[in-house]
Amino acid sequence: MNYSEIALRFGIEGEFAPCGNGHINDTLRSKDGRYILQRINTNVFTDPEKLMENIENVTAFVQKKLREIGEDPSRRTLNVIRTKNGKTYTIYEGQAFRMYDNIGGTKEVEPGSKTAEDMYGAGRGFGEFQKLLSDYPSETLHETIMDFHNTASRLVDFRKAVFSDRAGRLQEIPDEVEFVLKRTQIADVVLNAMVRGEIPFAVTHNDTKINNILFDAETDEPLAVIDLDTVMPGSRLYDYGDALRGGGSTADEDETDLTKVHVDMESFKAFTRGYLEEMKDVLTPREIELLPFSIRLMTYECGIRFLGDYLNGDTYFKIHRPKHNLDRARNQFKLVEELEKLETEMSAMIREMLG
C-alpha cells in the first residue's frame, strides 16, 4: 500500500513507517517524526464519520480549555489533520485513514514495566482529561461501540454463550460459570445510579491503559491522553475502575500462575492520589463512594467477556495459546475475590486522601 500517496491527501509529503503495538488500528509515523498516519479498523469501528466527529470535537474542546489555562495544546492533546478537501479521514483502496500531528519528546509506559510513580502520573493524566471535559455535553457524542461498558448487557451476552455452548466447553468450567452467576447483582449498580441521577453521564475514554498516556520523555510529566476511538458518554467510574483493573494488578492479565496475581495496593494508592488531585472537586459524593467498587465491577466485566469468548470458541479476543481466554478469565476472577475483601480498606484510604 502506498502510504505516501495517502499522506498527500492530507497535504503531507514524505515516507511513513510502522510504529506502535496497538491491537486494533495500524499506526505509522512519518520519517521526519512530525506526523502519525493510522488505518482505522472499520471491522471494529463501523462508522468512521461518527468516530472522527467524536475525536475532532473532543480534542478541539480540550485544546480550547488548555489555552484558557495558559497551556500549549500542541503537546497536551491530539490534533486532527484534515484532508485537502476538508475531511477528517480518507478512504483509500476501501480502507479508512486519518492523520494527527505527532507529539514529540514523549514516551509511553507499558503496563508490565510500570512503577508506582508512573501510576501516580497516569492518575493525574486521566484525571485531568476528565476534568477538562467535565462540562462537555456528553449526550452529543456518538456511541462508537454500543454498550461497551454496560456490564448488565455483557452479562446477557454471557448467559447466551452459556446457553449455546458453541465450542462445547461448558462442561470444563462449572466453577467459573458459578463464580459469574453468584455475582450478577453487581452488574447494574452503576447503571442504576446513573438512571436515578446519582451519578452524572460524562465523557469517558473507556480504554484507560497506562500506555494510552504520553509522558514527557525528560520530566516524566503526564502530557496527553491518546487513543480516543472509544470516547463516548458513560460514567467516569468506568475509566477509573478500568485503569486499576489492569494497572492495579501485580501480574499481566493472562498470567496462569494465580499465586502471582494480586491487587497491587501501592499502584492503587498512587493512581488514586494522582486522580483525586485533579478530580476531587469534580466528582459527586456517590461517585467517590463507588470508586473502589468500580475496580471490582470493571474486573468482573472483563472476566465475563474473556470467559464468554472462551465458550464461543475464541471469536473476539486474539489468543496465542489454547485456553488463553480461560486463563485470562481466571486471572480476573482471582482479582475480583481479592477486591471484595479490600473494598473497605480502599474506601478508608480514599477518605484519608480527601482529608
Mean pLDDT: 95
Q: What proportion of the residues is helical, as a percent range?
A: 40-55%
| Alpha carbon gap, first and last residue | 57 Å
What fraction strand?
5-15%
What does this structure look like?
It contains eleven helices and eleven strands. It has 355 residues and is α+β, with helices and mostly antiparallel strands. The strands form three sheets. Strands 1, 2, 3, 4, 5 and 6 form a six-stranded antiparallel beta sheet that branches. Strands 7-9-10 form a three-stranded antiparallel beta sheet. A hairpin with a 7-residue loop joins strand 1 (16-18) and strand 2. The chain is globular and about 55 Å long. The mean pLDDT is 95.
List the helices and strands and how they pair.
Blueprint: H1 3-8, E1 16-18, E2 26-30, E3 35-40, H2 48-68, E4 80-81, E5 90-92, E6 95-101, E7 106-107, H3 116-132, H4 151-164, H5 174-181, H6 189-195, E8 202-204, E9 213-216, E10 222-225, E11 232-234, H7 236-247, H8 265-279, H9 285-289, H10 291-311, H11 324-354
Antiparallel strand pairs: 1-2, 2-3, 3-6, 4-6, 5-6, 7-9, 8-11, 9-10
Helix pairs in contact: 3-7, 3-8, 4-10, 7-10, 8-11, 10-11
